[in-house]
Amino acid sequence: MAPTTPPPDEQILNSALRDLISANHILHHHGVVDAYGHISIRHPLNPAVYLMCGYMAPAEVSSPADLIHYHVHDSSPVDPAAKKGYSERFIHGEIFKRFESVNCVIHSHAEEVLPYVVSMGVKLKAVYHMSGFLGEKGVKVWDIDPLYKDGEQRDMLVNNGRLGAALAEKFVSEGSDAKEPEETVVLMRRHGFTVVGRDIVTAVYRGIYTRINAEAQTKALSVARNSHIDDAEAEKEGMGVGFQALTEEQVTGCKVMNEAFHDKPWRLWVREVERLPLYENTLSERKNFA
Ligand SMILES: [Zn+2]
């Protein structure tokens, strides 16, 4: 007997879950997450719910049973008997609550980004064409410390709705009631960073290229500081900072270009993780690939 075609809603959900499992693997394979860090999506059929994996390393996510449904309004599990989840899920829930247009959130402690959350006075800037999405002014840094109340454990984790809501506000100008995030990425002082996207492909692209951009900027600073050959030339051109970020006009142009080409690397990244034995995805159409 021919297999029956699943109803469209089921197809939509299965496709979203398959992509979420793949995205966990992709972010691990590309060094955006290790045993820590997480990605979530808004439920494709119910915007009041979001999905992310339970308390486990992203590389080990393999089936829908590993994913937990949470209410957007308070990040409580839809199933009260759900297994343990991430304490930092409030990052995701509060961003989904604040911005209806955001459908994917990634939180990372990628080591290449850490210099820009622990040093003072050096902004992470878009230094090449793949990262125009980082914007013209350098990436904002959010500091959790002033938000702690007396007696609270200062472990830097965004583990309640109050802290999550404060982080979500950093994606717009201070005091703004803008409905859309003005930032794509926010750095978190002495912790890591958080990325938003209208869909999973956009957010994963931004997560990976934020990491690569940070690495490129650090290397540029290092090369500049360790090389004396061109010092006179650099000084003449006013390049005292040691690296050149994209100009405002270049950022504007590259932002548009980035949006247009997200899909190409996504297809490559999915193929990569589908063929690596570390990663399992029970929903993958290629799960029997040998
Ligand atoms: Zn964290």
What does this structure look like?
Strand 6 (185-188) and strand 7 (192-197) form a beta hairpin. By secondary structure, this protein is α+β, with helices and mostly antiparallel strands. The mean pLDDT is 90. A seven-stranded mixed β-sheet has the order 3-2-1-4-7-6-5, sandwiched between helices. The chain has one domain: 3-Layer(aba) Sandwich (L-fuculose-1-phosphate Aldolase). 36% of the residues lie in helices and 11% in strands. Residues 88, 107, 109, 191-192 line the site of zinc ion (ZN). InterPro entries: Aldolase_class_II_sugar_metab, Aldolase_II/adducin_N, Aldolase_II/adducin_N_sf.
Brief write-up:
The protein has 290 residues and is of the alpha+beta class. The chain has eight helices and seven strands.
Features:
290 residues, L-fuculose-1-phosphate Aldolase, 7 strands, single chain, alpha+beta, 11% strand, binds zinc ion, 7-stranded mixed beta sheet
Compute the number of structural domains: 1
- Small molecules bound: zinc ion
Low-confidence stretches: none
Average pLDDT works out at 90
In the CATH hierarchy, the third-tier topology is known as L-fuculose-1-phosphate Aldolase
Structural class: alpha+beta
Number of helices: 8
Neighbour order of strands in the largest sheet: 3-2-1-4-7-6-5
The CATH homology group name: Class II aldolase/adducin N-terminal domain
Alpha-carbon distance between the termini? 26 Å
CATH class: Alpha Beta
Q: From the coordinates shown, what is the CATH architecture?
A: 3-Layer(aba) Sandwich
Radius of gyration: 20 Å
Shape type:
globular
The overall strand count is 7
GO molecular function, one term: aldehyde-lyase activity
Protein name: Class II aldolase/adducin N-terminal domain-containing protein
Domain Class II aldolase/adducin N-terminal: 18-218
Organism: Cladophialophora chaetospira
